[in-house]
Amino acid sequence: MTDFSNPQAYERWMGRWSACLAPLFVRFAGLGSPGRYLDVGAGTGVLARAIADEFGDAEVVGIEPVASYVDHARARLRDPRFRFELGDAQAIPFDNDSFDAALALLLLQEVPDAPMAVGECAASRARVVA
Ligand SMILES: C[S@@+](CC[C@H](N)C(=O)[O-])C[C@H]1O[C@@H](n2cnc3c(N)ncnc32)[C@H](O)[C@@H]1O
Fold first, then answer.
1. 46: domain range?
2. CA contacts within 13 A on the Cβ side of 79
3. CATH number, position 14
4. 3-state SS string for the chain
5. Is the CB of 120 under 6 A from ligand 1?
6. 20 domain-assigned
7. Residue among 4, 90, 113 whose CB has most ligand 1 atoms within 8 A, to mutate
8. Per the domain annotation, does 2 fall within a domain?
9. CB-based contacts of 98, cutoff 8 Å, min separation 6
10. 1 part of a folded domain
11. 114 vs 8, 28, 53, 88, CA distance in Å?
């Protein structure tokens, strides 16, 4: 498992690439309209921002287990459309069917029990794209 601890280092290393990938991933997901979306393994908030860029009225909740990343995403995306919380993809801390879709970008290779994470995503939403 990769060591994710420094959000500034992540931005320089991987975040600049995931920022290129995220808008393409959002369009690939075919979300279709503004809604309430879950970004699982949100990291520094790259995918959440791409969703909001595509759908101005979208509400995005990001979950991420690393506190420094959650703090970074909150500081970077100060807007009521975004919410970032500590959370594990293998035990998503929301009721079933809380979201229109659950998305995960560059996450599943990091999760010890990826099938469990996909199942949790499926319970949280109407659609899963990972
Ligand atoms: C390669 S980064 C991708 C971050 C972001 N989605 C992006 O595209 O920039 C993987 C992220 O998954 C997070 N992560 C690792 N294990 C996780 C788990 N069990 N549940 C949720 N997120 C996890 C890491 O902390 C890291 O922020």
1. 7-129
2. 16
3. 3.40.50.150
4. CCCCCCHHHHHHHHHHHHHHHHHHHHHHHCCCCCCEEEEECCCCCHHHHHHHHHCCCCEEEEEECCHHHHHHHHHHCCCCCEEEEECECCECCCCCCCEEEEECCCCHHHCCCHHHHHHHHHHHEEEEEC
5. no
6. yes
7. 4
8. no
9. 36, 38, 124, 125
10. no
11. 26, 21, 28, 11
Per-residue model confidence (pLDDT) at position 33 = 85
Q: Looking at the 3D structure of the chain, how many domains does it have?
A: 1
Q: Is the CB of 105 under 6 A from ligand 1?
A: yes
Return d(Cα 50, Cα 42) in angstroms, integer: 12
Q: What is the mean pLDDT of the chain?
A: 93
pLDDT tens profile 12-71:
999 999 999 999 999 999 988 889 999 999 999 999 999 999 998 999 999 999 999 999
| Contact status, residue 57 vs residue 34, Cβ threshold 8 Å | yes
Looking from the CA of residue 66, the nearest atom of ligand 1 is 25
Q: Which two tokens stand for residue 57?
A: 């009225």
Rounded Cα distance, 102 and 30, in Å: 12
